[in-house]
Structure formats: structure tokens, C-alpha cells
């Protein structure tokens, strides 16, 4: 079985060495020494001022909304994982969907301004597949209309834009460290900001709003454990190697796929990419389904990242038409991509894809 991704696991002895320290200290969670060490090393790796390591990439979106006092309308993307919209709905906000660009699938800044009302408080955009949004245009709109900018940067660890980590942009950026990501802690996520006061607020939000027996604010349990931090400490030094290995697999696909019949989203100028995903776009949903079925018949599992377009979710508040997102979401498929995917498997996957897209369906 070849899955769309495969989690990197460090040497077991390296991980168990951290576990021995946990056993000796009997400090399992609650802002432990490994968590603090990981936070420090991630801040250094990313070049960011404040970073809070939390339980997952969804709760940090909720924390961002709460910390910025966002309760009304938020202009957001329909092309993302459902967590982006769910966080807004969970916090009682109203998602207002702006369509995406047809080239990179990130939110289209040209569609944002006409959606701004007196109730708009923020823009929540996703850096799709680890590729940067049009950051300067979004920031200019936000400053003009006094809006906050929250980036769902779940895919971006290791990607940079104009020499800075993509996580360093916006009022707040969040990331996921789920086991499927380029950098992972099994389960986990982080929230990043340059604002000192906001960082202090997020610190308390992460841990019930108190420090020892002194209470300062509301809060939830978004703490992560020493066991997850230990995994992060093992994986973090390997990230440059993992990205290089992913880049190699990426280039094998580029060399083998028939781009006369399929396309890929374009990379934003100025991005140093982390090769988080390998999305391909077909001419129709029928072709996508034919390709997917052909791969699954050979025990190869691609994924429809992202489907459906989030503005069409039955439980969403807003159903603004987003024709680009609605169209792309029907036709995009992510092929297997992970550091140790063998070249012969890429050969086989590409051959199956090329053969399936070459089938010409006669009109009825």
C-alpha cells in the first residue's frame, strides 16, 4: 500500500533517550522542559519572536480568533481543509468566502475588498499546499480597512517568502504538526505572533488562564506533552534533509507526468518551497475519478485535497458563489509524496496517471 503520505520516524533509540529523561523527571506535561526546549529551537529555526506549542493546528486557529476578539464576519478562503471554516463557526464567527486565484489556489485579494462590511473584523487566509498567499496585497487591504490578518499556515513549516518564514507574516499565523506534515510532533501545532501582549494572552489561553494558583484570564487546555515535544526535538534537525528528499520526489513526478493533459498550481514568486504536497489538476472531475480509481486498484491512495469547496458545506453560514474554488476542488488530486518514496514507485504512479488521463471518453 502506498498512501498519500508517510510519517517520518526518527531512530527509536534517539526518541527513547528523551523518554528516559521524562521517566527520571516525572514531568509529563504542563509546560515541561522539553516543550520549552522545542519552542526555543523552533523560534530559532523559523526566525520568529513568539511561538506557542499547542495540541493541534485547529485549536490554535480558535485561540487566534479569541485572542484578537474576533466575533463577527471574517473573510476567508473556500479552498482549505475544513478546520479553517470549522474554527470560525465554532467561535461563533461568520465566514464570508472570497474566491481563490486560478493559478496558485490561494485567496484572491482582488475578491476581498468588495466583501468588506461594517461587521468585517478579519481576513483568515490559507497558504495553500505550503505556498504563500499574496501577502503584501492582503496586508494593504487589512491596513486600509483596519482588519486583523490571521494566516492558516498549517502546510508551511520550512517554506519561506522573501527570505522570511511564511509563519512570520500576519497578526497571527498558525501551523499544524500533525503526523502527515513536513515537520511533525505526532499531534501538535503552534501559534506565532510578533506582538508581546498578544503572546502573553495566548500563553494563558493555552493553559486555563492561570499560572500556578494565580488566575489571569479565561483559557482552555491547549497544552502539549513532553512526549510530543520529544518527537519534535528528534524531527526538527532533520527538516532540511526531509525537504531535500521531498524535492527529489517532486522532481521525479515533474519529469514523468504528462503535462499536456494535466496542470499544477503555480508557485508564488519569492517562495522557497517545502514540497509539502504534489497536487495535479485534471480537465474534469470524471478524469480525476478515473485516475483515482486506477491508482486505488493498484493499492495507491491519493487524496482530494481540498474537496469540497468550503462555501458549499451544508452547515456553513455563508454560501457565496466561488466558481474558481468550486471548479478546482472537483479536479485537483494530491499524489503520494514523502521523503523515502522510491523512484520506481513514482515511475509506476506516473505511468498509471498518464495512462488514465489518455483515455478519451466519447460524448454520449
UniProtKB/TrEMBL annotation:
Pfam families, A to Z: DegT_DnrJ_EryC1
Residues annotated as the enzyme's active site: 181 (proton acceptor)
InterPro entries: DegT/StrS_aminotransferase, PyrdxlP-dep_Trfase, PyrdxlP-dep_Trfase_major
One MF term in the entry's GO annotations: pyridoxal phosphate binding
Lineage: superkingdom: Bacteria
Biological process per Gene Ontology, one example term: polysaccharide biosynthetic process
N6-(pyridoxal phosphate)lysine: residues carrying this PTM: 181
Keyword Transferase: yes
Keywords: Aminotransferase, Pyridoxal phosphate, Transferase
Family named by the database record: Belongs to the DegT/DnrJ/EryC1 family.
Record protein name field: DegT/DnrJ/EryC1/StrS family aminotransferase
Top-level taxonomy: Bacteria, Pseudomonadati, Bacteroidota, Cytophagia, Cytophagales
